[in-house]
Amino acid sequence: MFDLARALSRAEELTASRFPDHPGIAALLARARDDGLPHTQRTAALRLLGALFDEPLVGPQIVHLDIIGVCNANCVYCRDHSPYVNDREPWRNREMPYELAAQIGRAHV
Ligand code: SF4
């Protein structure tokens, strides 16, 4: 479970040690601290700070999981289904078992 207070504490440590006088970092940290802002905006500020510190403070905003590699189209620009592709990815036409996809969803949502 994400711990906002812990992430904020780490952001404060990193700011103090690496960028104590940087106005942009200070502004992001102020947004992360502002409990009047929606949680999503505070975590977005922490996500940016994590990227600047090269140390993730917040998990990804979006996770995209392709559970199926099958497609019934043949778009010419497709890297995997175009009729002009000779070396197809090995996962083409494979499907993730439903139970595995459901386990991943339950574990990470
Ligand atoms: S780009 Fe590829 S995967 Fe997407 S619809 Fe076209 S053929 Fe299917």
Present the secondary structure layout.
Layout: H1 4-18, H2 23-33, H3 39-53, H4 98-108
Helix pairs in contact: 1-2, 1-3, 2-3
The helix-strand sequence is HHHH
The chain-level mean pLDDT equals 90
Largest sheet: none
By DSSP (H or I, 4+ residues per run), the number of helices equals: 4
The structural domain count equals 2
Quick one: overall form? elongated
Structural class: mainly alpha
Overall strand count: 0
List bound small molecules: iron/sulfur cluster
Report Rg. 21 Å
Report how far the terminal alpha carbons are from each other: 10 Å
Structural commentary:
The protein is 48% helix and 0% strand. It has two domains: 4-53, no CATH class; 63-109, no CATH class. The protein contains four helices and no strands. It has helices at 4-18, 23-33, 39-53, 98-108. It is mainly alpha-helical. Bound molecules: iron/sulfur cluster. Residues 71, 73-75, 78, 81 line the site of iron/sulfur cluster. Iron/sulfur cluster (SF4) is lined by residues 71, 73-75, 78, 81.
